[in-house]
Amino acid sequence: MRGLLASVGIACGSFGLGLLIGICGAYGKLYGSPMVRDLFGLYTTVVRAVPELVLILLLYFAGTDLVNRLLTLMGYAPVDINGLIAGICVLGVVQGAYSTEVLRGAILAIPQGQIEAARAYGMSPALQLRRITLPAMAPFAIPGLANLWLIATKDTALLAVVGFNELTQTTRLAAGATKAYFTFFIAAGVLYLALTLVSNLIISRFERYSRRGMPPLAETR
């Protein structure tokens, strides 16, 4: 259960960070300068092309070393980066690339008349984002973001390779100590399944709320 709580904490943190990066990336790719669009395009291409395990190893070890080298150059002593924070940041970078494309597609699905009306009213970009873009794109974004959340809960298992005691690593240690591999890994599978089922219930509520006032899906096909 401690491993499950650690996995949920990392998944929540990385999903939230990825969502923040995704909003910035989607806006950058749609409305940014050519250089900004190229930078975000490079970011999403590289992250989606390189296997996630390789990215985790690269960012976790090389990123930590880079931070300590920069601190040394600035005259500060090296620090031990908290494993939880490092795990959230690493998976957040991965989630951000996929969130960027999901949110970009959702923004493009918004009827352009709503965006033009907001501009005609003189809304600032921040106000337009808060009052028009985010609520209007939610029905189109939630299915993709739901998949990303479920992927985030599974990707926490990859942090076992760097020794972080999330659910998979804790299960492996317990199974190795007791030799009851079947019992512990079946228990871990059940916990992952329970997390997925609870997540699906919560996501379905969010989706129904975001589609309030809209025709049912069966009528829009």
Automatic annotation (TrEMBL):
Protein name: ABC transporter permease
Membrane-protein topology: Multi-pass membrane protein
One MF term in the entry's GO annotations: transmembrane transporter activity
Residue span, ABC transmembrane type-1 domain: 4-203
SUPFAM superfamilies given in the database record: MetI-like
Cellular component GO terms, alphabetical: ATP-binding cassette (ABC) transporter complex
Family, similarity comment: Belongs to the binding-protein-dependent transport system permease family. HisMQ subfamily.
Keywords for this protein: Cell inner membrane, Cell membrane, Membrane, Transmembrane, Transmembrane helix, Transport
Subcellular location: Cell inner membrane; Cell membrane
Parts of the chain that traverse the membrane: 6-28, 40-61, 73-94, 132-152, 180-203
Species whose genome carries this gene: Mesorhizobium hungaricum
